Amino acid sequence: MKRRPPRFGRGFSLIELVITIVVIAIALTAVFLALDTAVGSSANPMAETQAIAIGQAYLEEIQGKSYADLPCPSPCTRSDYNDVDDYNHLVNVGAQNQFGQPIPGLGAYTVQVTVTPATLDGAPAKLISVNVTRGNLVDITLATYRLAL
Asked: What total number of domains does the chain contain?
């Protein structure tokens, strides 16, 4: 007796195969979008931490200087700064140490310092603001008061 070939062959039809490919493509697109978001923002916390550390270093340096306005030798460079007011309007493109030398690896940061007169509970003070930016990634401002003690 002769066997008849099965009417429907084993395997997938073309429509089933196309639908499977479309479902896998949609799933992979969602996975890649989630990974892209995670990878794109993973550097941001590190840049923010570096910016905060830079700002704190500048604030510590400035707070260690005299409150009274002292004469600065001419030409007055950052290593000659001897009072808080000398730092007013300081702009460093690339973070620098207290001697005005660039810090390796931190050249992408811009540091701006402003010192403004203020009063704190009736006592004379100076508001020191340090703004640290890194392109569109980070923009952090740290501020503190320096009292006349």
From this structure: 1
